[in-house]
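Lab notes, practical 5.
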Amino acid sequence: MTRFSVLLSLYAKEKPEFLNQALLSIFDQSLRADEVILVEDGPLTDELYAILNQYKETYTEFKTIRLTQNMGLGKALNEGLKHCTYDIVARMDTDDIAKPDRFEKQIKFLENNPEYDLVGSWVDEFKGNINNVLTIRKVPESTKDIYEYCKSRCPVNHPTVIFKKQAVLQAGGYLTEYFPEDYFLWIRMLMNGSKFYNFQESLLYFRESDDTIKRRGGWKYAWNDIHIQKKFYNIGFISFRQFLGNCLIRCCVRIFPLKLRKFFYMNFLRKKAIHS
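Output from the prediction step:
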């Protein structure tokens, strides 16, 4: 079986109980990673250090990399990649929960399809606990459909991906002057000829909260959207018409009142979960 690393980044505002659930889901996989690299993005709380020390004592493959100050997700992941021993790297966030067979399914896909550089999946977005799944964030399956979808929306759920480190580095890694850093990375990889695949099922529980959608609004986010869409246009990934359309739609949603923005996300950008 292919050897692979898991890469995470943690900062002080994360909740210890969420971190514990995330790490437990990583070490309780049907296929265990050969190493788990967690970047401490700046000083943490005593409660978070306690969780990390507990896992380091239990699992020899668990290693932490300490940054002296908070650098942000993109820079933390770039640093973490330097410490990943293996070319195959699985991403996780420290407040999400991987389904037990996530790594096994994705690694088997890469073994059977070595021409692919990245494999992701849908996510179940939950609130409170995983029995309360509200929506499913669906993304397209084939490289062709992912490429076209990418011209208007991010085509990959970042916490679900397993990628080849060499392909990420050849594309320049996470460029932190552009937000969101992962979206721009996927575009550059696709333009480099990388093949992507998304499982048409959820392999991860993604934690949602009222603050999540609240944080996605405001003029700062609107300006970020314009900035990165302009970059997409300048590198020839989208047309000028697509640039104008993307900016108009995204900026309107960013400055919507919170209730209207939440309605838009829940009813137009997500598929509601069907409970039996």
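Observations recorded by the TA: The chain has a mean pLDDT of 91. The CA atoms of residues 19 and 201 lie 24 Å apart.
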